[in-house]
Amino acid sequence: MRATKQRATTTSLLACALLFASACGGAGDDSVPRSTPAPKPVSLPSIELDDKEVGALHGEVRYVGDAPTRFELGARKKPECCTHPEVDHMSDVVVATDGKLAGVFVTVTRGYDADDIPPAPSAPAHLDQRGCVYTPHVLGVQLGQALQISNSDPATHNVNAKAKKNDGPGNRNMGEGQAPLEVRFERPEASIRFKCDIHPWMEAWVHVEEHPWFAVSAADGSFRIPGLPPGTYTVEARHPTQGRLLARDLVVEAGRSTGFALTFEF
C-alpha cells in the first residue's frame, strides 16, 4: 500500500512538472509560450540567387482566425506625442492584415555551425522613442552589436527593460534631446521587453541572437534571411502574444533561397 501511494505521488509530481514545462515553453525561452497546434509550414517556390556560394530563406507569416482589431493609443491625447505626423498612434501589439501577420521575429535555431557565424556588425541597431511609440516594435540584435536607444520626442521617456540573462539597460529616464543610450548584451536572450512607465502603452521586444540569421516580418507578412551556408535548419517564429512556431528540416542550397510559410492561430 505504501509503495503504491509513493508511485502515485511520484506520477502526480511528474505530471505537474511536465504541465508546468509545457505551459512555460520548456527549457528554452519561457517568456513566450509555445503556440497551440497550428498548420504545418507550407513550402513556397524557391528563388535563384546571384550569390552561388551561400543560400537563404524567405517566406511569409500568416494567420487564421479573428485577429484583434487595432485601437487608438493614449498618445493621441498628449500634445508632446503628436509632433511626428507619420506615427499613426494605433496599437502595435498585433498588426494583422488580409491573413498576414507583421512583427514576428523569425530566427534560425538549429543547423548552423558556430564556426560559420560572421562577426557582429560594427553599425549599431536602433530603437527610437518617436511619437511616444517605440520604433520598431520588434527588433533583432546580434551578440556583440551595440543597441542605441534614442528619444526623438519633446518629452521625457522612461526606458525600462529588465533582461533575465543580461545586465542592461535596466531602468533609466531619457529627457528631450538626450544623447542615445548604448547597450551591449553579454548573452543571447529572446523577448526582452522594453517599456515606458510614463507612457504605459509604449512597448518593444528585443531579441539578442549569437548569429545574424534572423528577420522580422513586414506589414505583408514577408521576411528574408540571407547569407546562410548550405545545410538543414530549424527556424522559430516568435510573436509577443501568439507564442512560437517551429519549421524543421528546411534544406538550404547554395545559390537558392528556400521558401516557406508559417501560420499562427487566433
Short description:
By secondary structure, the chain is mostly beta strands. The protein has 1 helix and 19 strands. The chain has a 4-stranded mixed β-sheet with strand order 1-19-2-16, with no helix packed on it. Strands 15-5-17-18 form a 4-stranded antiparallel β-sheet, with no helix packed on it.
Task: Describe how the helices and strands are arranged.
Elements: H1 2-24, E1 42-48, E2 55-64, E3 95-97, E4 100-102, E5 105-110, E6 125-129, E7 134-135, E8 138-142, E9 146-151, E10 157-161, E11 170-174, E12 181-184, E13 189-195, E14 203-209, E15 214-216, E16 222-228, E17 231-239, E18 243-252, E19 256-265
Parallel strand pairs: 2-19, 6-9, 8-14
Antiparallel strand pairs: 1-19, 2-16, 3-4, 5-15, 5-17, 6-7, 9-12, 10-11, 13-14, 17-18
Which descriptors would you attach to this protein?
mainly beta; Immunoglobulin-like; 266 residues; 2 domains; 1 helix; four-stranded antiparallel sheet; globular; four-stranded mixed sheet; disordered N terminus; single chain
3D structure, described in words:
Helices cover 9% and strands 43% of the residues. The protein has one helix at 2-24, and strands spanning 42-48, 55-64, 95-97, 100-102, 105-110, 125-129, 134-135, 138-142, 146-151, 157-161, 170-174, 181-184, 189-195, 203-209, 214-216, 222-228, 231-239, 243-252, 256-265. The protein folds into two domains: 1-30; 35-265, Cupredoxins -  blue copper proteins (Immunoglobulin-like, Sandwich). A hairpin with an 8-residue loop joins strand 10 and strand 11. Mean pLDDT is 88; it is low at 1-32. The radius of gyration is 21 Å and the shape is globular. It has a four-stranded mixed β-sheet with strand order 1-19-2-16, with no helix packed on it. Strands 15-5-17-18 form a four-stranded antiparallel β-sheet, with no helix packed on it. The protein contains one helix and 19 strands. It is mainly β and 266 residues long.
